[in-house]
Structure formats: C-alpha cells, structure tokens
Amino acid sequence: MDSLTGILYIYAVVINIIGFIIMGRDKKKAKKHEYRISERVLWQVAIVGGSVGAYLGMKVFRHKTKHKQFAIGFPLLVMLHCVLFIWLNANL
Q1: pLDDT(26) > 70
Q2: DSSP letters spanning 19-69
Q3: pLDDT reported for residue 1
Q4: Residue 65: what are its φ and ψ, rounded to 5°?
Q5: pLDDT higher for 7 or 89?
Q6: 40-49: long-range pairs with CB below 8 Å, 24+
Q7: What are 36-91's pLDDT values in tens digits?
Q8: How many CB atoms lie within 10 A of CB 38?
Q9: CA-CA-CA-CA dihedral for 54, 59, 62, 63, to nearest 10
Q10: Helices 3-31 & 68-91, crossing angle to 10 degrees?
C-alpha cells in the first residue's frame, strides 16, 4: 500500500467517525432543546466523504429518519462514495 492509499483510508475512517458523532450530538441536542447542528453541516460532512458514518448515525440514533431528504439522500451518497472509493482504490 502506498502513502496516498493510506491517506485515503485514514481520511475515510476519520470523516465517517465525524459523521457518526455529529449525528449523535445533534440528536442529543434535539432531546435537550438546545441549539442544534445545522442540516447544512450534516450534509457537508456527508458530502465530503462521511456519508457512511452519517447514515449509520442516523440509524443508530434514530435521527432525521423521517426527513425524506436524509432518508433518501444519505443512502444515495453512501452508494456514490462506495463506488468512488473502490474506483480510487483500484486506480491509485
């Protein structure tokens, strides 16, 4: 494994952990009626590669599951990111 592939793996793990954590934190804030993490930030983290973590967070914390844009958008992003990750891994 070369260094670029290693960086790709590390980035994927870190950004997905961040995606998972922010979904959990936003759910916790929602329960406490506190200032929330914006949907824009949730989407930004998912778009830059954290879709798997954000989707898992959505399911584990049962957060945003009734919002169609999340319930449909996150799984689509997961599929796109999986294909992109496989393609990058094969070509690096």
Answers
A1: yes
A2: HHHHHHHHHHHHHTTPPPPPHHHHHHHIIIIIHHHHHHHHHHTT-STT-HH
A3: 65
A4: -75, -20
A5: 7
A6: 42/70, 43/73, 45/15, 45/18, 45/19, 46/19, 46/73, 46/74, 46/77, 47/77, 48/15, 49/11, 49/12, 49/15, 49/16, 49/81
A7: 999 999 999 999 999 999 999 999 999 999 999 999 999 999 999 999 989 988 88
A8: 10
A9: 20
A10: 170
- The band of 35, judged by pLDDT with boundaries at 50, 70 and 90, is very high
Amino acid at 31: K
Distance CA 92, CA 62 (A): 36
Rg of the Cα trace of the chain? 14
Q: How far apart are the first and last CA of the chain?
A: 9
